[in-house]
Amino acid sequence: HAHLLGIEPLSQGDITAILDLAEEYVTLNRSDAKHADALVGLTQINMFFENSTRTQASFELAGKRLGADVMNMAMQASSIKKGETLIDTAMTLNAMHPDLLVVRHPQSGAVDLLAQKVRCAVLNAGDGRHEHPTQALLDALTIRRAKGRLHRLSIAICGDIAHSRVARSNIILLGKMENRVRLIGPPTLMPTGIAEFGVEVFDDMRAGLEGVDVVMMLRLQRERMDGGFIPSEREYYHRFGLDAEKLAYAKEDAIVMHPGPMNRGVEIDGEIADDINRSVIQDQVEMGVAVRMAAMDLLAQGLRARRAA
Ligand code: CP
């Protein structure tokens, strides 16, 4: 693959290859060395048109640990504010010969469009409600390490599914790896036509969590609810917030995940989020660096091979 724009085009083999290489980077990141040379001589530009803590920081660290020259574009201070279009901005950066472009954008499809206009490898760091492929890959690695496998698991994704690119990329990935996916949330926050993805849909947490191996919580994406239904936080927490009573319906050894940013007391009880026996939220963050190192390493190998041909 020339780019990483989504999980959709990836095969089971592609996913396993990224996760296997990421395992090596987990080991490296835990050592004192922390550095390898997979991206030495390459230039990585990070363009985040939407706020980020985890994704931006981990792509930056990943690039630096692999020896790339990493530049973070301060999009708030860029000429986008003066009316320059996304494509003109991309073409301008393209003229500076970057090798890897990491892009987050509020519009679904914007990163795909940009990838058609530049001569480097593009990584989607989240586009609208479309895809967030490195998030699904880091979630997959976290699950595989915690459960010892990434197939025939029962996984519940809970909350605001309709606005979530994290949910969409996870549904696609977990389906490709032959897991059973359940979606739990209010019908108003469930996308139409979702049954086509081979998932089971619930609007009751207790019924949906019954016997699952993995509980993945999502944030209410208020910024994408333009004028539509916005539930009250109190009512939402009562019905869909993960607390000890609801979690008791999942398997005894079920793990709790959250991609962040987390709103404690809205979609998840703070004590559960901090419970090191159940929550793998900090592992997800750790896996994020390793998965992004692996994804950029593999794309750079392809880039170098095409340039040498
Ligand atoms: N999970 C995730 O994408 O977090 P950020 O928005 O902080 O990058």
Q: Indicate the structural class.
A: alpha/beta
Share in β-strands: 5-15%
Query: Order of strands in the sheet with the most strands?
Result: 7-6-5-8-9
| Helicity level | 25-40%
General shape: globular
| Main pleated sheet | 5 strands, parallel
What integer value in Å does the Rg equal?
19 Å
User: Could you tell me the number of beta strands?
Assistant: 9
Q: Which segments are poorly predicted (pLDDT under 50) over 5 or more consecutive residues? A: none
Task: Identify the bound ligands.
Answer: phosphoric acid mono(formamide)ester
Head-to-tail CA distance between termini: 16 Å
Number of helices: 11
Order of helices and strands: HEHEHEHEHEHEEHEHHEHH
What is the residue-mean pLDDT, rounded to a whole number? Answer: 95
Describe the protein.
- The chain is an alpha/beta fold.
- It is built from eleven helices and nine strands.
- The strands form two sheets. The chain has a five-stranded parallel β-sheet.
- Helix 1 packs across helix 5, helix 2 packs across helix 11 and helix 5 crosses helix 6.
- It is globular.
- Bound molecules: phosphoric acid mono(formamide)ester (CP).
- The site of phosphoric acid mono(formamide)ester has 10 residues, from helix 2.
Offer a quick outline of the entry:
With 309 residues, the chain is of the alpha/beta class. The chain is built from eleven helices and nine strands. The site of phosphoric acid mono(formamide)ester has 10 residues, from helix 2.
